[in-house]
Design goal:
heterodimer; A: about 120 residues; mainly beta; seven-stranded mixed beta sheet; four-stranded antiparallel beta sheet; about 55% strand; globular; B: about 110 residues; five-stranded antiparallel beta sheet; 11 strands
């Protein structure tokens, strides 16, 4: 079955440590997203990528890094520079429809089941 | 900048109607609506593209007024299964999708 898989489900980080959250999709989707969810804050965009080897910062990119070496994979690294990393992290993917030069529309987002990151 | 959703929370009795609003300070190309139940991933409800369209999904429908940069989600004859947090996501010319803070909906039997 096609879908989007996040791992691990729970992750603990020690102070000063970098950790990487995995996100894999076999839907052949062009676009992939990382969102952070905190209680009462909704979903805040960390990074997004519309094509392999290209990605853009979202509203809260500081302290995070990503790579998009393959279409199906979009790992997120939470670096030691992120001082408040405890949150629920959601990865999503979608088909990107190009409807004229420099304009595109995302079809519906498919979300992974999320990773809860906590600090030890 | 996050779109603004209102109200923040709603409590209804089964069978009652609700409206959730979403407004943005930026010009919009599309609006997405999702529902999330506690501990689960958000689930897609519908997308509205610029053009003032209205769409429906069972007893849930939505409208999009691009001039006012607003969208509204209408839930009629609510069911217990409608409980959860509703998020609107807005996309501008860059097409990145930015979500609001959500509206918590609780349906009482």
């Amino acid at each position: 079955d096609g879908g989007i898989t996040q791992s691990p489900k729970y992750l603990f980080r020690k102070e000063g440590q970098n950790v990487t959250l995995s996100c894999e999709q076999n839907l052949n989707h062009d676009a992939m997203y990382w969102y952070r969810q905190d209680p009462g804050q909704g979903l805040r965009l960390i990074y997004y990528s519309q094509i392999v080897n290209d990605f853009q910062k979202g509203d809260i990119a500081e302290g995070y890094s990503v790579s998009r070496e393959k279409k199906e994979s979009f790992p997120l690294t939470v670096t030691s520079a992120q001082k408040n990393p405890t949150a629920f992290y959601l990865c999503a993917s979608s088909i990107l429809v190009i409807w004229e030069e420099r304009n595109a529309t995302n079809e519906k987002l498919f979300f992974g089941s999320g990773t809860q990151l906590s600090v030890l | 900048q996050q779109p603004v959703q209102s109200p923040q929370a709603v409590i209804l009795r089964e069978g009652e109607d609700a409206v959730i609003n979403c407004s943005s300070s930026k010009a919009l190309y599309s609006v997405h609506w999702y529902r999330q139940k506690h501990g689960e991933a958000p689930v897609f409800l519908m997308i509205l593209l610029k053009g003032g369209e209205q769409k429906g999904h069972e007893k849930i429908s939505a409208s999009f007024n691009e001039k006012k940069q607003q969208s509204s989600l209408y839930l009629t004859a609510s069911q217990l299964s409608y409980s959860g947090t509703y998020f609107c996501g807005t996309a501008d010319r860059d097409d990145k999708i930015i979500f609001g803070k959500g509206t918590r909906l609780h349906i009482l039997p």
